Amino acid sequence: MAVISAERIMYRHAIELCQAAALDELFGNPHLCSQRYQTAYMMLHTLAEQVNCDQDKTVLTRYKVAVEKRLRILERQGFVAAVNT
Fold it and tell me: ATG1-like MIT domain: which residues (predicted)?
């Protein structure tokens, strides 16, 4: 039986949230994606703070920065009230 850690579940969920948010943007529903991006950002941030492996931390931080960029774009377009880092 495979052991799946809470961190792996969080990571997968964060990626799924980002994918769903990107699809919302792609299909013209940017007002629906901000909550997904914000939740994914928080999850990626939490994981990046807890991880011990430098390579994992680098990947998580890179994804977190990408999500933050999307949130900033949505903020400029008026779909996100504020982005706190």
Answer: 4-74
